[in-house]
Amino acid sequence: MDLSRRDRQPEVMDQPDLDVSLHRQALDVIGRFHRLFRSGDEIFGRIRDLQDSDRPLRILDVACGGGDMIVGLGQAARKANFDIEISGCDLSNVALERTAELATQAHIEVKLFPFDAIKDEFPEQFDVIVSTMFIHHLSNQDVVALLRKMKSAATKRIIVADQARSRATYFFVKTLMLVASRSPVTRVDGPLSIRAAFTADEFEQVAREAGLENFTMTTSFVMKCDLPPE
């Protein structure tokens, strides 16, 4: 297995004719891992220093998927009595529908809208723009373009989290999907996503090409980056 460079292959979940039941099953599996690894709490920990007593902190999750991260974020903020206003966007109507259902069940208010991360411009500004487990779907050029749009639309912080490409991550995810997932979609897409992912050095290069400087980055199985918009 050559992981020396990004290898982007079509993922099953990205196919427009994917059966809805298989799509939702895959989103359920991904959601379970979001909850297991407490991604909502993780993102909340990265924004709680931005609390403003005058108004809610406005947050957008780009390519929100099934919504487990932003619902977890909303729950963490509610528990901490932290006032936030959450929005989520995604290209997939199936994903947006699941997010709406999950948010309703959790009594978390979320504003949702369809969004093509490559073609569309953000409709307004937000304090914080978040992207989790998404940029590996895009070419380097499209990631640069997306980061530039995020830089223009975020007033306080940009947060990007995605898998970090390595042999350890590849075999961890492949084993995890075989052991913990019954979804045929995630069993295929999980390893493919690692092959398509960035290394920390590669992401640093595209971030700088997008005009982002002075960012902090941590890497393990997941690469997490906090980037100031200015």
By CATH reckoning, the class would read Alpha Beta
Number of helices: 8
For the record, the CATH architecture stands as 3-Layer(aba) Sandwich
Placed side by side, the strands forming the largest sheet appear as: 3-2-1-4-5-7-6
What's the helix-strand series?
Answer: HHEHEHEEHEHHHEE
Topology:
Elements: H1 20-36, H2 39-45, E1 57-62, H3 68-79, E2 84-90, H4 93-106, E3 110-114, E4 126-132, H5 140-153, E5 154-163, H6 167-180, H7 184-196, H8 200-209, E6 216-219, E7 222-227
Task: Describe the structure in your own words.
The chain has helices spanning 20-36, 39-45, 68-79, 93-106, 140-153, 167-180, 184-196, 200-209; strands at 57-62, 84-90, 110-114, 126-132, 154-163, 216-219, 222-227. Helix 2 crosses helix 3 (68-79) and helix 6 (167-180) runs antiparallel to helix 7. It is of the alpha/beta class. It has a single domain (20-227), classed as Vaccinia Virus protein VP39 (Rossmann fold, 3-Layer(aba) Sandwich). The relative contact order is 0.16. A seven-stranded mixed β-sheet has the order 3-2-1-4-5-7-6. The protein starts with 19 loop residues before the first helix and ends with a strand. Strand 2 (84-90), helix 4 (93-106) and strand 3 (110-114) form a beta-alpha-beta unit. The model has no long low-confidence stretch (mean pLDDT 95). Helices cover 44% and strands 20% of the residues.
